[in-house]
Structure formats: C-alpha cells, structure tokens
Amino acid sequence: xxxxxxxxxxxxxxxxxxxxxxxxxxxxxxxxxxxxxxxxxxxxxxxxxxxxxxxxxxxxxxxxxxxxxxxxxxxxxxxxxxxxxxxxxxxxxxxxxxxxxxxxxxx
Length: 107
Known about the structure:
By secondary structure, the chain is an all-alpha fold. It has helices spanning 2-16, 20-27, 31-39, 46-56, 60-63, 76-87, 93-104.
C-alpha cells in the first residue's frame, strides 16, 4: 500500500513539476516528513493523505492505489463514505479516530 502511495505521489510530482520542498510548502507538511512518506519509512495519517490529495486535486483513494480515476468526484461526502466503507476493516483505531477528526474538523 505505501509503495503504491509513494509511487503515485512521485508520479504526480513529476506531472505537476513539483519538488519535495514545494510539496511541503503547498501541503503544510515538513520537508523531512514528505521525504519519509516518499521513501516508505513513514505511513501517512488520514489528515496527511487529505492534504497531499488536495495539492494534486486527486482523491485519497487514488493515492492509495484503490482506484484508477485520480479526479475528485462531484460529491465529496459520497467519496468519503465509499473510502471508509471499503477500508473499515483495514483501518486501525488510531486511523479511525484521525478520520473522524478530519471529517468533523476536530484537532
């Protein structure tokens, strides 16, 4: 899963001609963290997936290799529900808690 994430992000960086430093600035994620995500040393939390997907205007599902279409559907709520439903058994309790925070704007 993470190698798929790394590959997708690297492809998008090439597509959009964005460096790691620029991705860090655009996403609000530290450059060292971006490097660790791209190397696979660190797994992105749900909020990190959301930030990176927003920079490239793609879905988190696309970044995780779960779907071929990179474009965000018109109804973000339906997309979110599909992602949650497909992955509920794969998510740890911490990831579920993080997803709830992202969805409901908590910190």
